[in-house]
Every structure is written in C-alpha cells, then in structure tokens.
Amino acid sequence: MxxxxxxxxxLVEIPTAMNGLSEPLFTGDxxxxxxxxxxxxxxxxxxxxxxxxxxxxxxxxxxxKATRLAAGNPLKFDVHxxxxxxxxxxxxxxxxxxxxxxxxxxxxxxRNQVVVRNLQPIGAATLAKDQPIVYVLRGNVGTARxxxxxKPNGDFQTIVRSNEGLDLRMIFLMRFDSPHPFVIAx
Length: 186
Fold this sequence. Notes:
186 residues, alpha+beta, Nuclear Transport Factor 2, Chain: A, 2 domains
C-alpha cells in the first residue's frame, strides 16, 4: 500500500503502487500524483502519511533529484530558459548565452545552487488550480531570492523571483518544514 497525494490536495491509498517516496504516480487522474507515504502495518506510526521520518525521506529524495536537475522536454525548456535566464544571470553575474552550452551551464548552475544549499526543497505545490504537482525549492542565489520549480521526475519547470507573481499564486499541498506537512484541502 502507498499513500498518494493528488493535485487536488486529496490523499488516497493505492494498493499496488511500487513507486518510492516523492516519485510521480499515474492514478487514472490526468494530473497524477506523488507518493507521500509507504502505508505501514495497522497501528504502526507509518500507517498514515505524514510521519516525520517519511517527510524527511521525501525531502532527501527531492534534494537528490534537484542535484541532477534535467532539461526535460526540449521545446518547453527552451521557452523557459529564454524567458527566465536573466533572473539567474543577474543573481550570479554569469552569462548564459542562448546556445546548447549556455543551456547546459544554466542547468549546472541551478544544480550547484542546490548542492551548496542555496536552493532548498520546501514542499509540493501546484502552480494553479487543476495543474499537476511540482516540487518547490527556494533560497538566496547570489544577489536574489529565487524559487526553482521542478517536476516530480526531476525535470526543470521554471525559475521565478520569490514572493512575486507566480511564486505568490502557488497552491502548497505539502510542506517539508512543518510538523503537519499536509495542507487541508479547501
């Protein structure tokens, strides 16, 4: 049994899922979900999702994925790279030209910012209602406070300024920094 967090904020128990914590899972819902609990034996502390040890394991898994951040869909990556690379250029004062080398350097810089813990995983969210779940990493990068959005499979989604625009509109479903990690569905 595995507990799965759906994009609408609901937790469901899936009897046959083999996916590990933090992994994406296709549940029949077009938005899918992520595995948030291992569903321990009846009466155990891990029977229900949200046990601190499982939340810590998820945080560690998201951190590991972010250190291997990938481009994902090349067409979508190109659009987000062109639209948002200036944020990282200004923050770290390095050029990221629109070229294959610039794109690779951009991803490498984001991975490095995770490795040195300037960007830290803070939770799982959706970018808007009826959108798939993403992982959110936030922190001070050079001279700016940035938010990195990563898909559950470890692919780059976007980077934005923290506490502005899209960052303020995110709907958090789970927080890694809370003793009660799941946000009550509205």
